[in-house]
Specification:
By secondary structure, this protein is α+β, with helices and mostly antiparallel strands. The protein has a single domain, classed as 2-Layer Sandwich (HIT family, subunit A), CATH 3.30.428. It is about 25% helix and about 20% strand. It has a 5-stranded antiparallel beta sheet, covered by helices on one side. The protein is globular, with a radius of gyration of 14 Å. The structure holds adenosine monophosphate (AMP).
Amino acid sequence: MSYDNDNIFAKILRGEIPCDKVFEDDYALAFRDINPQAPIHVLVIPKGAYVDMDDFSANGTDSEIIGFMRATGQVARELGAVHGGYRLLANNGADANQEVPHLHVHIFAGRNLGPMLKRFDG
Ligand code: AMP
């Protein structure tokens, strides 16, 4: 899939729509999810134009990938999520129900998060 410059996170990165920012550096921006699923629910996105983890892992530069990973860990630390624990989740593509076509990693924390996925009975 090619990158859609009009996706909502691209607009947030360009400052065209607001976000509840918690962190920013050269490689990443982190902001609170508009529809939180946990007491702490923050999205971390790379500054570069990458559709998803597949795109980023294949086409991101080493600096971008390292910078994004370090930023994600730093955000979790700054949110106070390390002691109690946290979950990272990145939906990639159709079966994962990815809604926004700009790579984002969800950070969930602040309560016991339960099982990772709904039970697979198939
Ligand atoms: P995903 O299903 O992984 O693509 O998740 C997209 C996430 O983006 C959802 O959890 C939405 O609640 C969140 N979201 C969508 N629009 C915004 C926005 N303008 N600001 C913050 N979070 C948003």
